[in-house]
Amino acid sequence: MAIWLTENSKIIVQGMTGGEGTKHTRRMLASGAKVVGGVNARKAGTTHEGLPVFGTVAEAMEATGADVSVVFVPPKFTKDAVKEAIDAEIPLCVVITEGVPVHDSTEFWAYAVDKGNKTRIIGPNCPGIASPGASNAGIIPADITTAGRIGLVSKSGTLTYQLMYELRDFGFSTAVGIGGDPVIGTTHIDALQAFQDDPGTDAIVMIGEIGGDAEERAAAYIEQHVTKPVVAYVAGFTAPEGKTMGHAGAIVSGSAGTAQAKKEALEKVGVRVGKTPSETARLMREIMQTR
């Protein structure tokens, strides 16, 4: 089992003909993902990497039955690309692009809500989603882990890869990189709910970081709704106060948004929090060895 992305998912790539789109389309195909076409209005009717290129997401969906779009377009075009995917009512839109203006992210997120939330948005500024052995939509390496029964939701791309690798002997149902921007489509809570409901997931790893209150809200949700064991890691214990660190959302004001405050909120509801990524993997290993 997996969440949101399965072996039956059919993927199109918005921006497939660009440099990043081409590279990662090849990687997704090599991993066994069912990539069925691309979208580029200026190159409609051509082929690229052996796949048809369509003028719009709607045309691509009609011709191929696609139900997932991965967005590799420059930041200034991302808003329009995502709104096009929402208009076509594609079920899942994975926005890889980094540097999307927060105003644009807010606009297309609100647009999705206004249109009835028929399109789940993951990202922007994220590595995507991978269900090992089944499918891969985005830039998560396909060969660093195996299929298994751990669910992973993470703000950080590189920490996603590290935890997947360190727990490769147990494997993952699905790994979701939600991105570190201040406004994102899919949240920790969305993934926690999906993993809780997924019979193929036995335990959950949650990776957060300083800034905002997403992890505190996730802790409150876990207390009320999640019965499966959750292990967490919060990046940024050594970050100086008041400084933006890497991800646009990682800014701390006073005691709000600190790694320590997030750690305490999570531990209060029974989540085991590792001090390092490797310790987090060890805590999950202990849980999986008893299941």
The secondary-structure element order is: EHEEEHEHEHEEEEHEHEHEHEH
- The rounded Rg comes to 18 Å
Shape: globular
Strands of the biggest beta sheet: in what spatial order? Answer: 3-4-2-1-5-6-7
CATH architecture of the largest domain, by name, is 3-Layer(aba) Sandwich
Helix content range: 25-40%
CATH superfamily placement of the largest domain: Succinyl-CoA synthetase domains
First-residue to last-residue Cα separation: 17 Å
- Unreliable stretches covering 5 or more consecutive residues: none
Structural overview:
The chain contains nine helices and 14 strands. The protein has helices spanning 19-31, 57-64, 75-87, 102-114, 157-166, 188-197, 214-225, 259-268, 277-288, and strands spanning 10-14, 34-39, 47-48, 51-54, 68-71, 92-95, 120-122, 128-131, 135-138, 147-154, 172-177, 203-209, 230-235, 272-274. Strands 3-4-2-1-5-6-7 form a seven-stranded mixed sheet, with helices on both faces. Strands 9-8-11-10-12-13-14 form a seven-stranded mixed sheet, with helices on both faces. Helix 7 runs parallel beside helix 8 (259-268). It has 291 residues and is of the alpha/beta class. The protein has two domains: 10-122, Rossmann fold, CATH 3.40.50; 144-288, 3-Layer(aba) Sandwich (Rossmann fold), CATH 3.40.50.261.
